[in-house]
């Protein structure tokens, strides 16, 4: 007779076909069994060009590791705790999201984890927030599915697979931290060499007004990537690592959370944007079409956040009301809330022009190309924008006694900070939003809610 411990039943496994190199070793869903302790329910492993470095047994061991000590976890109902493990002895890092859910009628502590080699730490860290936010929302949906007694694995798979594809694409097509200005439009002899003057001005201005988030769509990959690199000049090195160039032979899917991404049109000259993924981006987005030289943008941050949260609630409500697992398709546009119908035409023309970007472009093309002068001038321009954003934050802090009073003097702010032009104010507000999240809602929030309610009432007549 064998004296060893009894063998646990085989863990269900899904192999995901991923093109190219996938830095992810595996993803796991585990739960705490009150009798047997930590148990792995499912493993997702990429099937790609590189062999898997971990066996199923090692993956199970690592998944168990994330749940040990969670038996006495005390957290608010619905809370998702994010834990980051670096196991040097195994040469891996584990990002684990701990949450409570119901399995087989019992309340259990669960963990959804992704496992990467320790050598990929520098690659993964800039993308950590992107991955975690997407996994958090799929967990919200999964908890409802568990409560109703349905199979949570199918729900989790709908986000685990795209994250594997995202990390794989970022491994080969991410924008480098340092961009040579020679690879961008700002190195041209004249602003009209690569694109029309008004188009470039609109693209950069709207890009800054939407917190540095843009998608560039076109039929020519070289032209798309040149615009992508140009826009990334206005981002920080960390934000560039969360941006992606377009692929020459086939298009990537749109990915929520990236700052700038290039997308290639199909053979028919079209590209279908998934409404839900675009709305779930942390910031509003600029849509740039390099084929027809058009620039459109989403509403500002406070309106974007308002619409996003309303839609998120509607989606979860529709999931709760679903009578079966087949009732809700992954990318269905939800129309369940009678007081909130999403506007599918979320991209509008750029309404507000600016003087900041216009003056910068007029002056930068006066400098001789091929030297470091334009790079230096760009750095100076970005420093000025950053200082203006810090000044705006300090101004609002003083006027509101650090948030104790509502902000009522927008006209005075525009006059005192020389931001009378709406486009200039939008650019500085967007930069300040990234420094202090929630600024837009604090300054503009209440009037916006009122206007939305008034619009809804008027439309009901």
From TrEMBL:
**What biological process terms from GO does the record include?**
autophagy; central nervous system projection neuron axonogenesis; endocytosis; swimming; swimming behavior; thigmotaxis
Which is an annotated GO molecular function term of this record? guanyl-nucleotide exchange factor activity
| Gene Ontology cellular component annotations, sorted alphabetically | autophagosome; endosome
Read off the InterPro entries from this record.
C9orf72
Pfam families assigned to the protein according to its UniProt record, in alphabetical order: C9orf72-like (PF15019)
Protein name in UniProt: CI072 protein
